[in-house]
Design goal:
Strand order of the largest sheet of chain A: 7-10-6-1-4-5-11
Mean pLDDT of chain B: 96
Strand content of chain B: 25-35%
Distance between the termini of chain B: 54 Å
Largest sheet of chain B: 9 strands, mixed
Number of helices of chain A: 8
Distance between the termini of chain A: 51 Å
Mean pLDDT of chain A: 94
Strand order of the largest sheet of chain B: 11-10-9-12-8-1-6-7-13
Number of helices of chain B: 6
CATH topology of the largest domain in chain A: Rossmann fold
Number of strands of chain A: 17
Number of strands of chain B: 15
Oligomer: heterodimer
Structural class of chain B: alpha/beta
Helix content of chain B: 25-40%
CATH topology of chain B: Rossmann fold
CATH class of chain B: Alpha Beta
Order of helices and strands of chain A: EEEHEEHEHEEEEEEEHEHEHEHEH
CATH class of the largest domain in chain A: Alpha Beta
CATH superfamily of the largest domain in chain A: HUPs
Radius of gyration of chain A: 21 Å
Largest interface: A-B, 96 and 78 residues
Low-confidence stretches of chain A: none
């Protein structure tokens, strides 16, 4: 039976996390000797057949404007119906904000076992075992899904996008649209910035920056790398930076390719939010800062001198 | 108004994570247990605040756990709430846990069910959505603000690239994160009062688990930090470009 991948989009445009989910689902289907299809809800502004380049055979399009905003109940009902109509028995989501809203509701409706935060393709040699992060990135668990229908959501940035150059057949799918019970009264999207959870590179600042007025150099560095900006908890709690930038155990957990920590000591609560990053760079004047133990590269020194130089060197490298 | 807050017992953030029996079980020796911070600081404290505004509110806590969860339940009751329900079972399957809670929720006819956005041990972020599906009520995820006005909840929630404000009629299940409330410290009066608050133990319903943990692994140790001299920033850029290949 085919694998069905929920390809979510923001205002009609697909994102890296969707391409990751598509690539993951297509690879899984290949491994199981079956096919993979995608389901897209709402108005799309991109050519849906192009999703075929990530390996899916068909794109089921539920083209109804009721799905242009994410109502977990309506989304889950629509995806559940799509699963039933396509006969899929494995459903793939990205573990992003939309995935967190919808995947578990779909799983319950289908009485499917769910594993969220997957970091690798399932081991299907004996059962269906999914590797996921647990203990906030401090360990992995191999979790077997024992139900006939299975739901997996994958951690953003943990499975690489694989483009094969194919084209998918686009097939409209009619489903029943329920009556929304949730009314959206306001939407505030942060425009122009790289969303933190999707960023390949994150530049983050701590108390070592001494005050909000010094964030300019951090932003310059982030800009030179097309990176998102983040901060430690004390910085958010002091109101130097908005709370949605707070990375750590109780803030946002990120898993970029590169995490650059400026003037952050690296308390265990902060590490819990960043330890899934592929490469960590720490710049701190205190050689005893615990963050150096979790880092791949480091400079012991004054961030106020080093950061502007670093920005210059990066601009040089990029030929700007 | 009747509120149910779901709480979970988790190892303290600073606990050393280790496994035993051939990496099939979490090593609990020496672990300090706490209430999952998302459940306590955000979901539960917000519920307490709502009860403070409307004292007629009935506030219950629920957890799925064996008797060793009782100390953290008492700790929670020291912060507030009228009664706790412990479903006498242990599980790491989101469906099992959520379905047990849904059974309790059905018989209690709650208007508002709150969870944390995820637990800091299994990081599933699934229990709230499953409860909502089983009760056929709306689910609002990743709330950063929650207000009640009569039987309407106004919730600000995190979405891809921003936030939105939702209005929904009760009953509803909401998962809470930072912003919804601020951490509180229990006072002596609360601690004393918690001792006599009812802690009801109910036996689990017959529900199948749909997943099971086969084994655990610790991530490979970092090779150690490569330090670059402060006057040689160019070398760091070279390493990131040529060796790590991340820029």
């Amino acid at each position: 039976m085919p694998v069905l991948i929920f390809a979510d989009h923001a205002d009609g445009h697909f994102k890296k996390s969707s391409y990751e989910a598509l690539s993951y689902g297509a690879k899984l289907a290949e491994q199981l000797g079956t096919t993979s299809d995608a389901v897209v809800l709402g108005t799309a502004k991109e050519d849906l057949s192009s999703l075929g380049q990530y390996g899916v055979r068909k794109v089921y399009h539920i083209n109804n404007a009721s799905f242009d905003t994410v109502d977990a109940q309506l989304y889950a009902a629509a995806i559940t119906e799509a699963v039933q109509k396509t006969g899929a028995d494995i459903i793939i989501f990205s573990h992003n904000q939309t995935g967190r809203a919808v995947a578990s509701v779909v799983a319950a409706k289908l009485k499917a076992g769910i594993v969220t935060g997957a970091v690798a393709l399932p081991n299907t040699s004996n059962g269906f075992v999914v590797r996921k992060t647990v203990f906030s990135g401090k360990a992995f668990a191999n979790v077997e899904i024992t139900s006939p229908i299975k739901v997996v959501s994958i951690n953003p940035n943990s499975f690489s996008v694989q483009s094969t150059g194919g084209s998918a057949e686009v097939s409209p799918l009619e489903i029943t649209v329920g009556t929304p019970k949730v009314k959206i009264t306001a939407v505030n999207k942060v425009s122009g910035e790289v969303p933190l959870t999707e960023a390949d590179i994150v530049v983050s600042g701590g108390r070592g920056l001494k005050g909000p007025e010094n964030w300019g150099m951090l932003e310059d560095l982030a800009h030179s790398l097309h990176a998102a900006t983040a901060c430690s908890r004390p910085v958010a709690d002091s109101g130097w930076r908005p709370h949605h930038e707070h990375v750590g155990q109780t803030g946002i957990q990120v898993s970029p390719n590169l995490y650059i920590a400026l003037g952050i000591s690296g308390a265990i609560q902060h590490l819990a939010g960043v330890n899934r990053s592929k490469v960590i760079v720490v710049i701190n004047k205190d050689p005893e800062a615990p963050f150096f133990k979790a880092a791949d590269y480091g400079i012991v020194g004054d961030i106020f001198e080093i950061v502007p130089k670093l920005t210059e060197e990066i601009k040089k490298l990029k030929g700007e | 108004m009747k509120i149910l807050v779901c709480i979970s017992k988790t190892p303290d953030t600073t606990s050393k994570i280790a496994f035993k029996n051939g990496n099939t079980q979490f090593e609990e020796a020496g672990v300090q247990w706490i209430i999952n911070p998302y459940d306590e600081w955000y979901a539960f404290v917000r519920a307490i605040e709502l009860k403070e505004k409307d004292p007629a509110t009935i506030l219950h806590l629920v957890t799925v756990g064996t008797p060793d969860a009782d100390p953290i339940i008492r700790k929670a009751l020291a912060l507030g709430g009228d009664e706790a329900i412990r479903i006498n079972a242990t599980s790491d399957d989101s469906y099992f846990i959520a379905a047990q809670i849904a059974e309790v929720a059905k018989s209690g006819s709650y208007d508002l069910i709150l969870t944390g956005k995820e637990t800091i041990d299994y990081n599933a972020s699934s229990v709230g959505g499953i409860i909502a599906a089983l009760l056929d009520t709306p689910f609002i995820s990743l709330a950063t603000k929650l207000e009640l006005n009569g039987t309407t909840a106004t919730v600000t929630r995190e979405i891809e690239g921003g936030e939105e404000v939702n209005e929904v009629s009760l009953p509803v299940v909401i998962s809470c994160q930072k912003g919804v409330a601020e951490q509180r410290i229990p006072n002596m009066r609360g601690i004393m009062a918690a001792r006599t608050k009812p802690l009801k133990v109910v036996e689990p319903a017959a529900i199948d688990s749909l997943t099971k943990i086969v084994s655990y692994e610790l991530p490979p140790a970092k090779a150690g930090v490569k330090l670059v001299a402060a006057d040689n920033v160019g070398e760091l850029v070279r390493l990131l470009h040529e060796e790590a290949r991340v820029i």
